[in-house]
Amino acid sequence: MNPFESLDGRVVVVTGGGDGIGLGIVEVLASCGAQVVVAEKNAARADAVRERLGGRDALFVETDVAEPASVAALFERVDAYHGRLDGLVNNAGITLHGPFDAFSLDDCDRLYRTNLRSMFQCAQLAAPRIARAGGGAIVNIASNHAGASVPGFEMYAATKGGIVAMSRAMATSLAPQRIRVNTLSPGFTLNAPIGAALERDPALLDAYRALHPAQRINEPADIGRIAAFLLSDAAAGIAGADLVADNGMSALLFNRTRSST
After folding, report:
1. Which backbone phi and psi does 226 adopt, to 5 degrees?
2. What's the half-sphere exposure (Cβ side, CA atoms, 13 Å) at 79?
3. DSSP per position, 156-199
4. Catalytic residue check, 156
5. Cys-Cys link to 160, which of 10, 142, 152, 183 (CB 3.0-4.6 A)?
6. Contact 155, 108 (CB under 8 A)
7. What is the pLDDT of residues 166-217, one digit of tens each?
8. What are φ and ψ of residue 184, in 5° steps?
9. What are the backbone angles phi and psi of residue 65, rounded to the nearest 5°?
10. Which GO MF terms are attached to this record (predicted)?
């Protein structure tokens, strides 16, 4: 039995679904037969997303998750187009970092609004809709920075740690409505900006691989398959968990350079 068969026909919202990890999640869900709603701030990505999906059913909704009115409009659009909702992947987020003594409060607020508050609002609006459909799942995308981070990423790490803590509490609040809530915390994952950096300096790839015990770096589709699992009935017994997907990077006591041979 295909564990992802249960996703066939289910309506799932994916925020930040136009690129990177979000697009990887969208592609995997669409391949499983889900009716994906791609919530994306950059409307110019719509055609590229549709092309990547190869005609599979998807609704693209221009959405700025940092703006409450835009988020509310997203779920109203879902109501009008599908009339139901079975799942939510809160993926949209930004990365801001800089010297501790120079990091601005404005950037702190941007991180909070985009990375944390938006996930609460999306879940708050999604939950009654998912409950009306008979239950489902919410997957909140955090980061391995929630457990261990690096200098200059204090507020970014705080938002990611906040996602994990919020999701655990949310799982207890929504369990009576048959809604499972889990966190997926990716580590280093290849995306367009990283790919461009590797084109400029291919030696970076070996340096990045050396940070991982398996000498392997995630592709967006790797994260997509894990998100699909957490949304599916195969994960029916999992709630309030944080699944770290970083190829063992966070398990290292210290980083060490390893030979690639």
Report:
1. -70, -40
2. 11
3. HHHHHHHHHHHHHHHHHHHGGGTEEEEEEEE-SB--HHHHHHHH
4. yes
5. 142
6. yes
7. 999 999 999 999 999 999 999 888 887 777 777 788 888 788 777 788 888 8
8. -115, 120
9. -65, -15
10. oxidoreductase activity, acting on the CH-OH group of donors, NAD or NADP as acceptor
Catalytic residue among 81, 112, 156, 208: 156
Q: Specify whether the CB–CB gap between 201 and 207 falls below 8 A.
A: no
Amino acid at 220: P
Query: Which token pair is 127?
Result: 């939950």
Q: Note the helical H segments in 32-153.
A: 46-53, 68-81, 105-111, 118-132
Q: Are 216 and 209 within 8 A, CB to CB?
A: yes
Sign, Cα dihedral of 248, 252, 255, 260: negative
CATH class label, 5-251: alpha beta
Look-up: residue for tokens 């609704």? 59
